TrEMBL record:
Designated name of the protein: Iron ABC transporter permease
Coiled-coil region(s): none
InterPro entries, A to Z: ABC_BtuC-like, ABC_transptr_permease_BtuC
Record-level Gene Ontology MF annotations: transmembrane transporter activity
Native source species: Prauserella cavernicola
CDD domains xref list: TM_ABC_iron-siderophores_like (cd06550)
Classification via PANTHER family: FE(3+) DICITRATE TRANSPORT SYSTEM PERMEASE PROTEIN FECC-RELATED (PTHR30472:SF1), FERRIC ENTEROBACTIN TRANSPORT SYSTEM PERMEASE PROTEIN (PTHR30472)
Compartment(s) where it occurs, according to its Swiss-Prot or TrEMBL record: Cell membrane
Membrane topology value: Multi-pass membrane protein
Sorted UniProt keywords: Cell membrane, Membrane, Transmembrane, Transmembrane helix, Transport
One Pfam short name: FecCD
PROSITE patterns to which the protein is assigned, alphabetical: PROKAR_LIPOPROTEIN
The family this protein is said to belong to: Belongs to the binding-protein-dependent transport system permease family. FecCD subfamily.
Amino acid sequence: MGGARSDRVRRARSRPVRLAIGLLAAVALLLGCGVLSLLTGSEPVAFGDVLRVLVADDRSEPAIIVHDLRMPRTVVGICVGIALGLAGALMQSLTRNPIADPGVLGINAGAAFGVLVAIVGLGIGSFTGYVWFAFLGATLSTTLVYAIGGRGDDSGAPVRLALAGTAIGAALVSATEAMVFLDPKAFDEYRFWIVGDIAKPELGVVWQLLPFLLAGTVLALSLGPRLNAIALGEELGTALGVGLLRTRVLVGVSVLVLAGLATAAAGPIGFVGLAAPHLARAVTGPDQRWVLPYAGVFGAVLVLLADVVGRVVLPSGELRVAILTAIVGAPLFVALVRRRRAAA
């Protein structure tokens, strides 16, 4: 008996070390995906050339490809993936809803609608200009989804929230289509942006993204202990000194910042926020202090891998990131809904 107990104690003490090593391995995987992103494209660049142009300042063809095209694309992909992975993990934890996702619950659609208002209605074409409209649209859609899906005896049930998000998303898509028809000149810019992609980022977008990403990430990671306490039950969480309303507000602010900046920078990319937290929990278990950083890293890996595959899967041209994430994420969404229905 004593030996079994001591083994459990040793395993419990060694678990943080193993998770930390696993997180470092995940970061190493992300760096490898970043290198792969720099190497892959219609004009392949040798690994040696990539290393050379990263440390040397020249204007050779490989340097132009890496610095002007693939480096901004890779960094934006990492930022967007981290933001979506963290946003999805926060939503799934707070709502105890395994299918919660900025796309499924209508946040992406709301942010997209806000950006389109800026582009079509006000002629704003820069990230710093329309990111605020993305935040406003995301806030509006989130409020509507929870106002509709959170009513009734089964308020906050996964299916109710998913259906409310789908309905709100469909309404916002209809509104955006109407706006495009009213301003045909904006069609090309809207068509590229609404598909969801990181293929043509401006170099300045990288630096404009970072303050929002850092603020949202720091806030998200700081909420891990609070979310662990709430997971024990709202009454016990309150007894442990966690303010439920304050936690919900902070989670909402973090999700809106992260999902809003991701949508503003790359368009609405779905299912990354759904899949990344599930991958994280498969490694870490339910401890949100570890789920959150793992979900951010896995989200970035998913976006970069989708972007790399999209560059090479077609004989000519590229397949957008959002299309590939939907191909992978839609079956996962169906499987999760079916599993929850069977459990119920």
